[in-house]
């Protein structure tokens, strides 16, 4: 379902955004390379004080590569839901006005709920579907009040399955931002960590890189599977064709 959202949502006139929370990041020397003059390697203290932790809330738009982040010291539901409601309201308001398709509106919603073991209970009255939001399966993301707010604003949450966080593209952008902001650095306060992450995100948004689901790596794996030779009876395969024994010939050989 989430793969279909990445591949088909744009052709259906829907936007896809991904949400995740990164952290906590500690005020300790962070491993990784850093910008240092040649011949003067970075030196990290062997004694340091832990001044608290920071987290970063992330909304990522794969089609354009735009990212929205907010540094926080606490990620309780009130903080997360308040930030998401503010950001998503801005995103939906900037979308083109939906065409009047009241009769087909429920069908558009139910198309993304097929096959789920525990699908969402949709209300009787639904607005046009505008946006698909990919989330992980934390209990806080399934709070009835928060889910009802999403549905009322034309947003359908898609939850990654247990152990399937790799389906959330926000994981990738968070890793990039964290590496650029903190690797090789020694932040002294949670406020410094949040400021660095937000500054890196602002710099990224000046020239964002769109993300495509699968890309060359997926096509390379598909070509590799096509080169395999499947063997019947199980899921086994061979990398080269198995030599088959020629059936015996029972005819007579005509002589000269």
Concise summary:
The protein has helices at 2-8, 77-93, 102-110, 144-152, 170-182, 190-206, 215-226; strands spanning 15-26, 53-61, 66-72, 131-135, 155-159, 229-230, 237-238.
General description of the model:
The protein has one domain: Nucleotidyltransferase, domain 5 (2-Layer Sandwich). The strands form two sheets. A five-stranded mixed β-sheet has the order 3-2-1-4-5, sandwiched between helices. The chain is an alpha/beta fold. The mean pLDDT is 83. The chain has helices at residues 2-8, 77-93, 102-110, 144-152, 170-182, 190-206, 215-226, and strands spanning 15-26, 53-61, 66-72, 131-135, 155-159, 229-230, 237-238. Helices cover 33% and strands 16% of the residues. The protein starts with a helix and ends in an 18-residue tail after the last strand.
Characteristics of this structure?
256 residues; alpha/beta; Nucleotidyltransferase, domain 5; five-stranded mixed β-sheet; two-stranded antiparallel sheet; 7 helices; 16% strand; flat
Annotated CATH architecture = 2-Layer Sandwich
What is the ordering of alpha helices and beta strands? HEEEHHEHEHHHEE
Measured between the Cα atoms of the first and last residue, the distance is 69 Å
Q: How are the strands of the largest sheet arranged? A: 3-2-1-4-5
**Total individual domains:** 1
Beta-strand percentage range: 15-25%
CATH class: Alpha Beta
Query: Total number of β-strand segments?
Result: 7
What is the number of helices?
7
The unreliable regions are none
